[in-house]
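Narrative of activities, Objective 1.

The group set out to show that a structural description can be obtained from nothing but a protein's sequence at a throughput compatible with the screening campaign. Below is one input-output pair from the validation batch, recorded exactly as produced.
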Amino acid sequence: MFNYTIRRLLFAIPTLLVISFLIFAILDLAPNDPTGNLPLTISPEVREKIRISLGLGEPFPIRYLKWLQQFFINEPLNIIEQWFGISIGDSENRLRVQSWATRSPVVDLIVERMPQTLWVVGLSYVVGILIAVPIGVISAYKQYSIFDQIGTFISMIGFSVPTFFTGLVMIVLFSSTLGWLPSIYDTTHKVTDLASFWVQFKQMVMPVMVLALFNASQLSRFMRASMLDNLSQDYVRTARAKGLKERVVVLVHVLRNSLIPVVTVIALGIPQIFGGAIITEQIFRVNGLGQLLIIGIQGADIPLVQTLTFIFAVLIVFFNLIADVLYGMLDPRIRYE
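Output recorded for this entry:
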């Protein structure tokens, strides 16, 4: 398992390099101009000086290599210096990936917005898994029952209806009509006591549940299908014939094998929820990574969009590796040596 993990990590390096080149090339060569939003009274000479100051006066290969150096070398060194107080090299003159709009380091902007996204998106995914796994197990064990039919119907609706519609319905129902929950997420709110925690809880309910229900609808169907496939296997009949309790057969043997394909969906779905949360963050005004990406796209802030997009790609490769490693933990028949 250890050798397999090392090989996969080594294989991920050229994969990420190819992905980084494609992302950088597509966004850098797109027909956009960072000076396009400037007033028309600014002369072409001044516009050209602004483009040069943004690093656009150099050839494409040079810009790409500088971006690689800034992202893979300079930014990690800066994080090490900020977190651990260890200074490596000339930190004052170290070039960093800077936003064209704010002239601030992109990584600092991402770190500033990350807690809000993790609170909402991360918690929603955990809640979605906790909802999906029991529903999938019970639906498969009680196939064609009333519980299974209701669960299937709700899952189809939850997976088919987009999150922006669900979010608007929740705002109209629980905020405008009943007045129970706030419609706007206050990212400046700090939890200091029980009362402030209750305020934080109320403002997190709607965005978390919108994403949780969407994720649970998909995961529960995968869980149900995997459970049905394993319930008909020979080893289940053998376990029952040996006199094992039904709870042990279902929750230990069947559930463990059924989680193998579901782990892939769960692991690979983690990066996708960051992209899916963009709309939800816009609806509830959550000042997270999704809103930051929208601002970068609207303002043609190419360095910001490049960095955020590449971070999402890194998450996909990383969690794909985690899913493969978890295979061996869940199924001892799998060997990677």
